[in-house]
Amino acid sequence: MALEHAILVSLLEKPGSGYELARRFERSIGYFWTATHQQIYRVLKRMEGDGWIDVREVPQQGRPDKKEYSVAALGRTVLSGWLHEPIEPESVRHDLAVKIRGAAFDDPAALISEVERHHRAHADRLAHYLAGQLRDFTGPEAPAAQDAGQELQHAVLRGGIAYERMMLAWLDDVLATLHRLRPER
C-alpha cells in the first residue's frame, strides 16, 4: 500500500489539514501504516498536483490560514481502482524473531529483558486499542447505530486487538522458553 491510499482513506473519513492528518496517523492509522509529518506533507503536495485532492484555505484568527484537504473525484477513482486490485498476503519480517533464533548461538537469557520490553510495548498498545474500542464503539459515547465506515473501522480495530493478544501470548511463550533455557546459577 502506498501512503497516498492511507491518506485518501483518512481524508474520506474526515477532511482536514496536514497537521490534523498527521495527528490521525499518530493516534490510529499509524498503528497500521506509519508516516512522518514530512512524508505526509510531501505526499499531500504531490496528490494536490495530481488532482487527487482538493485544497481550500481556511481563515484563522490570530494565526496563518490553514489548508484543509479533501478527496477530489479523481482521488476517489484512484482509491476505487486500488481497492479492486488484488494484493499479496503480507509476509512477516520480524527482527525479534531472528534475534530469538540467534540466541541459540549465544546466551538465550540475554534476550529476556528485550523480550520483556517488547511484551510491555504490546501490552500498552493492546490497552490503547481496548480503550479506543470502549470509547468509540461500545462505551456511552459510541453512536447507537454505526455506518459502514464505523463498522469497518471497528473491524480493523478488532484485528489489531487480536494481533496484540496473539503477540502477547507468543512473547509469554518465548519468555517461558528463555527462562527454561537459562543456565542454573
Low-confidence blocks of residues: none
Number of domains: 2
Largest sheet: 2 strands, antiparallel
> Which structural category do the helix and sheet elements fall into?
mainly alpha
Coarse shape = elongated
Question: What's the total number of strands?
Answer: 2
What is the first-to-last residue Cα distance? 50 Å
Strand order of the largest sheet: 1-2
How much helix is in the residues?
A: 55-70%
The rounded Rg comes to 21 Å
Protein name: PadR family transcriptional regulator
InterPro entries: Tscrpt_reg_PadR_C, Tscrpt_reg_PadR_N, WH-like_DNA-bd_sf, WH_DNA-bd_sf
Organism: Streptomyces albireticuli
Sum this structure up briefly:
This protein is mainly alpha-helical and 185 residues long.
Features:
mainly alpha; Arc Repressor Mutant, subunit A; two-stranded antiparallel sheet
Give a written overview of the molecule.
The structure is a single chain. The protein has 185 residues and is mainly alpha-helical. It folds into two domains: 1-84, Arc Repressor Mutant, subunit A, CATH 1.10.10; 95-181. The protein has helices at 3-13, 18-27, 37-50, 73-84, 95-102, 112-138, 148-181; strands spanning 53-58, 66-71. Helix 2 crosses helix 3 (37-50) and helix 6 (112-138) runs antiparallel to helix 7. The relative contact order is 0.10.
Topology:
Elements: H1 3-13, H2 18-27, H3 37-50, E1 53-58, E2 66-71, H4 73-84, H5 95-102, H6 112-138, H7 148-181
Antiparallel strand pairs: 1-2
Helix pairs in contact: 2-3, 6-7
